[in-house]
Automatic annotation (TrEMBL):
PANTHER family: HTH-TYPE TRANSCRIPTIONAL REGULATOR MLRA-RELATED (PTHR30204:SF67), REDOX-CYCLING DRUG-SENSING TRANSCRIPTIONAL ACTIVATOR SOXR (PTHR30204). Gene3D superfamilies: 1.10.1660.10, Cobalamin-binding domain, Methionine synthase domain. Pfam families: B12-binding (PF02310), B12-binding_2 (PF02607), MerR_1 (PF13411). This is Cobalamin B12-binding domain-containing protein. Keywords: DNA-binding, Transcription, Transcription regulation. It comes from the Bacteria. InterPro entries: Cbl-bd_cap (IPR003759), Cobalamin-bd (IPR006158), Cobalamin-bd_sf (IPR036724), DNA-bd_dom_put_sf (IPR009061), MerR-type_HTH_dom (IPR000551), MerR_fam (IPR047057), Meth_synthase_dom (IPR036594). Residues 1-70 form the HTH merR-type domain. It comes from Paenibacillus lacisoli. Residues 179-267 form the B12-binding domain. CDD domains: B12-binding_like.
Length: 301
């Protein structure tokens, strides 16, 4: 929460203007303390930032406030309609949430995006929100960037915000020390990490400790990390077939130093057996079968 002086300094809007917008137009109405001091939320700050940008572009403050209210009404209507009359999530509901979240992120509206995500977890549940909304958004972001419909800044912003929500769940599940300790990474040059992120989260849900390095990871320092952290399993993901040889080299380097380490090699590039020398480590099964794989490998001894 922020005071009116803090908001004024952050947004470069005089306090007298903030009071005028509140009193004359009810543009943003902050909470009040028992002593009468204004207290602005992150959403209030974002709304004021948007109003300022509209005014600076030539729109009147009254018109900007009307537009802001209309946006809020449309968002409320959209959120209500997502679950449908039955109150049960549907493919249409997931698609609506995916599209609304994508558009919000596309326009750098972080606070609204997090509000949508929180709403989705409440309404859909943990697994459904991840697999039916967040993953499709990440895939759509990657496609938009590759096809020139999204800038590098937009792609980074959108991917980072959703990835941070993934990371939050890493700390919610207990770790069972008898299970392998995992290192998860994409080789240098590979920027698509959606599949790896999902698999790492799946392993954490099942009690494995996962050190997640993510996309575009060079070999430098990896061997030392494996040694120092006592890694038992390395998971990699590759979507670009041109990078399979580089990833195979990484596997060779690791296995030559640590012969007992196991690997999981996933991603679209590993769907064809002929692409790699390390066929025994390939993970070609769909996400729906990961649990059965895990139980066969680690729970049935």
């Amino acid at each position: 929460m922020y005071s009116i002086k803090q908001v004024s300094a952050m947004l470069d809007i005089p306090t007298v203007t903030l009071r005028a917008w509140e009193n004359r137009y009810q543009a943003v109405v902050p909470n009040r303390s028992s002593s009468g001091y204004r207290s602005y939320s992150d959403q209030d700050v974002e709304d004021l930032r948007w109003l300022k940008s509209q005014v600076e572009s030539g729109m009147s403050i009254s018109h900007a406030v009307r537009q802001l209210r209309q946006q809020r009404e449309e968002e409320a209507s959209s959120l209500t309609s997502i679950m449908g009359e039955t109150g049960v999530a549907s493919a249409e509901g997931y698609a609506k949430m995916t599209d609304q979240l994508y558009q919000t992120l596309f326009h750098f509206q972080a606070e609204r995006a997090n509000t949508l995500i929180d709403f989705g977890f409440t309404m859909f549940g943990y697994d459904a929100m991840f697999y039916h909304v967040l993953v499709p958004v990440l895939i759509r972001v990657g496609d938009a960037w590759e096809n020139g419909r999204a800038s590098v800044a937009q792609e980074h912003f959108m991917t980072q915000l959703i990835s941070q929500r993934f990371y939050q769940f890493f700390h919610l599940f207990p770790i069972y020390p008898q299970l392998p300790k995992v290192l998860a990474l994409c080789p240098e040059g590979e920027h698509h990490q959606v599949g790896l992120l999902l698999f790492a989260l799946f392993l954490r849900k099942n009690g494995l400790e996962v050190l997640y390095l993510g996309a575009n990871t060079p070999l430098d320092g990896v061997l030392e990390l494996i040694r120092d952290q006592g890694i038992n399993m390395v998971c990699t993901s590759v979507t670009n077939k041109a990078l399979v040889e580089k990833n195979d080299h990484l596997v060779d380097e690791i296995s030559s130093r640590f012969p007992k380490i196991r690997f999981v090699l996933g991603g679209k590039a590993y769907e064809d057996d002929s692409t790699t020398r390390h066929r025994k480590w390939m993970m070609k099964m769909p996400a729906e079968e990961w649990q059965s794989w895990f139980e066969r490998e680690y729970l049935v001894q």
